[in-house]
Design a protein that fits this description.
The structure is a single chain. Helices cover about 20% and strands about 35% of the residues. By secondary structure, the chain is α+β, with helices and mostly antiparallel strands. Bound molecules: zinc ion (2 copies). The site of one zinc ion has 8 residues, from loops.
Length: about 400
């Protein structure tokens, strides 16, 4: 199969859809008692008044801002205003000096915060310019108790190989709820691929005579050769990509392999209007990557999707297709920034040489999907590997005896 060409980016200018508030005091009051304090009730996914317990849900964000229209009608670049470059905000971002993570603190409520990666307490002295408020947010629907169970179960299955110190210090109740920044992207594209395919028409056996005059049977195949062309519209809905530079960092020397992507997907279509009260009791991490930086990765994924879809249409060519050209033409893109809910259990491993490696178990705050890494007990792992090798050698010896 030929290499895919990078899709051509959309040439038009951006159309910005405003998703922020109306610029007034921003206080949203309880419909029933007028109080302005409320928090997320994870069991219902609704905001609950701290005083009278009245509950209400906020509007679906994509519908409210008309950001869920037909992808086929999409042209040019449409972005939520929450995807724009970093601006000042009442919330303050602290950079954790222990692990380098950026932690958002709502300064109207607290001046300290715990880092959700390494659980250090941060104070206001380590401030960096702040990230943006997202276009939408998906509230937690998996409770802390459920998250603790998921983390405990994940680690229990790996206890045998886990580092003894990690096992001794393991406390799943230290799991923390954090809203992580993602971009949710729709793409309207047209893909055209061309190549050559073969379809077998007949198979039969012939007798052939070799140079010494002996005859033997030989299998023959007849095939028709076709020029193959596929040209189709491709609508990519709710592609979800991380928008934190640190989480995009694939360097496994600093952080254990990237597990946040493995707990996808999120039901982003149920995202609601951003409201800081959803963040009460949770932490959040600012977005620090802009649309322009993420676009090449997104368009690369669009090309991959085109390739998978075209492979579904070539069953007729039972002897295979060789693709020569692939062209993906992007007609429209839509970008929405979102906070998505993740429960995190983190563990900062200090190795013998003094270097550190961040491990974590992540639980999707909507589905409970759990993935992570635990520090390994290397001697025990090596022992198991050598036992397998001995068994392998024994099996090979038995085979040799039988033949
Ligand atoms: Zn109330
Ligand atoms: Zn930290």
């Amino acid at each position: 199969m030929s290499d895919l060409q990078a899709p051509r980016p959309v040439p038009d200018g951006e159309r910005v859809v405003r998703t922020g508030g109306d610029g007034t005091d921003g206080i949203v009051r309880c419909e029933r008692c007028g109080a302005s304090e409320a928090t997320l009730n994870v069991a219902t996914g609704m905001l609950r008044c701290n005083f009278c317990r009245f509950e209400w849900s906020t509007q679906n964000a994509l519908q409210a801002f008309d950001l869920d229209g037909a992808i086929g009608d999409l042209s040019g670049v449409v972005v939520g205003s929450g995807t724009a470059d970093v601006t000042a905000d009442p919330a303050v971002t602290l950079r954790c000096t222990a692990c380098g993570a950026d932690v958002v603190v709502d300064t109207t409520a607290a001046v300290h915060a715990r880092c959700h990666w390494c659980r250090n307490t941060l104070s206001l002295t380590e401030q960096v310019p702040n990230g943006a408020v997202p276009d939408m947010l998906l509230p937690f629907s998996v409770s802390k108790d459920e998250a603790v169970k998921h983390v405990a179960e994940f680690v229990r299955k790996r206890t045998f190989y886990a580092h003894p110190r990690f096992r001794a210090e393991f406390q799943p109740e230290n799991v923390m709820g954090v809203y992580l920044p993602y971009m949710v992207v729709d793409v309207n594209a047209h893909a055209t691929v061309t190549g050559e395919g073969e379809h077998q028409t007949r198979s039969y056996t012939v007798q052939v005579r070799d140079s010494e005059g002996k005859t033997r049977s030989e299998r023959r195949y007849d095939a028709d050769v076709y020029d193959v062309r596929r040209s189709f519209d491709l609508h990519v809905d709710d592609l979800t990509v991380e928008s934190s530079a640190q989480r995009l960092d694939r360097d496994t020397a600093r952080t254990s392999n990237n597990v946040i992507n493995t707990i996808l997907p999120f039901d982003v279509e149920n995202g609601v209007l951003y409201d800081p009260r959803y963040l009460q009791g949770f932490t959040s991490e600012r977005r620090d990557v802009d649309v322009g930086v993420l676009r090449p990765a997104v368009l690369g994924q669009v090309s991959d999707i085109a390739r998978w879809r075209v492979d579904e249409t070539i069953a007729f060519y039972d002897r295979g297709v060789r693709w020569d050209t692939t062209d993906v033409d992007v007609r429209g893109e839509r970008w929405v920034s979102a906070y998505l809910p993740v429960w995190l259990y983190s563990y900062l491993q200090t190795k013998r040489d003094g270097s550190t490696l961040l491990h974590y178990v992540a639980v999707n705050g909507r589905t409970g999907e759990t993935m992570g890494s635990v520090p390994l007990n290397v001697p025990r792992l090596a022992l198991v590997a050598s036992v397998v090798e001995v068994f392998g050698a024994a099996a090979a010896a038995v085979l040799w005896v039988l033949t």
